[in-house]
Amino acid sequence: MNGWQRGLAALTLVLTAVRPASGQADSAHIRPLFTWRDALLGGGFVIATLAIHPLDKRAEDAVQQPYRQKNQALQKAAFGLRTIAAPGAVIIGVSMYATGRVSNNDRLASLGLHGTEALFIGEGVGAVLKGFFGRARPFVDSTPNPDDWQLMRGFSGDKFQSFPSGHSVAGFAAAAAVTAETSGWWPKSTYIIGPAMYGGAALVGLSRMYDNRHWASDVIMGAAIGTFAGMKVVRYVNAHPGNRVDKWLLNASVSPQDLGHVRFSLVPLGR
User: Fold this and answer.
1) What predicted TM-score, i.e. pTM, was given to this entire model?
2) CATH topology for 72-253?
3) Which of 21, 56, 94, 215 has the fewest Cβ atoms within 10 angstroms?
């Protein structure tokens, strides 16, 4: 089995393991935060990262071909995708939360809040790993070197923060949170929402490779962190509906007042 076949096999394992989690906790049985399925999923991501690593240079060469880099459609697509992921993911999440509160749409507010929580958790983990591993981005060396690692070097500057991909973390955190949350509301739509969200997140990762900012293995690990962040936030809040963050932010009251003013109260409504 050659390198490409190993990589494809590993990716197939990961994509098979990423099954939409129920967005609602069963009243008779609350799933633990981590399960054996999570261990399989995490193992699949690790295997995929290790399998793709030998192909990092080949993948970088492929996406950096002059005819691809000069393609204006690809340039615009890459720009749009990376902007949607960052800062777009935060803007979208906060906007959804605010709109949901103003319109009294609990589901929209929940989606925005939990997606944003997943984003910040995932990016926090990713930032620590970026600093710790200190991997050079593809554009740093005169001859791109995927094996240019130096522990703790990432804390010295952006050029050495390649692993993992932060934009991939953002894209997959949003995908996982939205898929998990909506699967409990509209179970039949899971296999439409899930592929659309995860597919979009994968394109974000490809755009970062196109921009020569990340190696393929950076994207896989970013996908792993984002997926776990989104899944775990939704699972946790469903198992702990009275958690402090939801109690204060999802139970806040927003009501229109005279002269078009809006009153926002952080006093829980106690529901």
Assistant:
1) 0.83
2) Vanadium-containing Chloroperoxidase; domain 1 (1.20.144)
3) 94
